[in-house]
Amino acid sequence: MDRRSFLSGLILVAGTPQLFAAELSKPIKVGIVYQSSVGNAGWNYQHNLSVIALEKEYGSNVAVTRVENVPDTADSERVFRQLAMQGNQVIIGTTFGYMNSMLRVAKEFPKAVFLNASGYKTASNMSCYTASMYDGTYLAGGVAAAMTKSKVIGFVGAVPIPEVYRNLNAFALGARKVDPEIQVKVVWINAWHDPGKERLATITLINGGVDVVLQDTNSTAPVAVAEERGVYSFGWTSDMSAFGPKTCLGSVVADWSDYYLRQISAVLGGKWKSSSEAGSIREKFVDIRGLNEKLIPGPALARFKADRGLALQGKLDAFAGPFKDSKGMQRVGAGGSLSTSERERMDWTVEGVTGNQGG
Length: 359
Description:
Elements: E1 10-13, E2 16-19, E3 28-33, H1 43-58, E4 62-67, H2 74-85, E5 90-93, H3 99-108, E6 113-117, E7 126-131, H4 134-147, E8 152-157, H5 162-178, E9 183-188, H6 195-207, E10 212-215, H7 221-229, E11 232-237, E12 248-254, H8 257-268, E13 276-279, E14 286-289, H9 298-312, E15 323-324, E16 330-332, H10 340-344, E17 353-354
Parallel strand pairs: 3-4, 3-5, 5-6, 6-7, 7-13, 8-9, 8-10, 9-17, 10-11, 11-12
Antiparallel strand pairs: 1-2, 12-14, 15-16
Helix pairs in contact: 1-8, 2-3, 4-5, 4-9, 6-7
């Protein structure tokens, strides 16, 4: 069936396919909501690049409405409802904080498809999707271990929730697998995007002896500060190498292009079903982009490429044991790994991580 055919969709309710009542117009209307401006780097920028890929693929058969600077408050519910009333058949919310508002609106508009980034709640016409970034931070940790001279690397933490703890701990485990003496300092800023706080956190880390910085925040400030101070860095969510051309080692990026293309294809082909997806490097949700191979020593680069190859096969386990937490308790023994539920509830740091433990 031609994926540009405009047919009724299917949804899955209690495991039984049922006719999705919406009749798709031409072009299909897609609405996407951003918590802040799209900007030129970071989380929203990368979502926008993924939507641009969708527009390139479908051309005039898709019409996208972008709504920026919508906080994850009651106002987001109004925006989602307005997009649905305007006839958007697919509505995308790009942050976890939109989840409950989107769910309420989805129940009011059962003929529209809703997609929520980083959430966990679903409905018959609402899916969620998550980029599991920790494989990327594990790879970054291995590179950082080869670049640090002080054996102290840094992490600018956004908000102390399990997702960010996973990224931090994988970074530390990746580095300490190469060199068990490496320490990871963390500074939490309790915000996802605050250039001023990100800048101050990076300066604090560098003044504390850190010579490689990875951020889990969305502005380019940490990369820019590292460039100014002659310290290595990794960008976050989008390729930030242009903001640190001399010292940025690469960026741990999220990429939703393939997911959006698959979702629209399923809607148009009458095969869409509600789902919950968490993807990493193998699933094309995550990768390392803008890798500065000229800066990285040959053995470290070879190790990185080998580990990335394992990740592409789904054979890289960032949380394989043995390792302890920062309080000295054995969390995983040799030959073991953290369970899915343990990863989802993570609120602790691994051995070697220092800094305030919750902002």
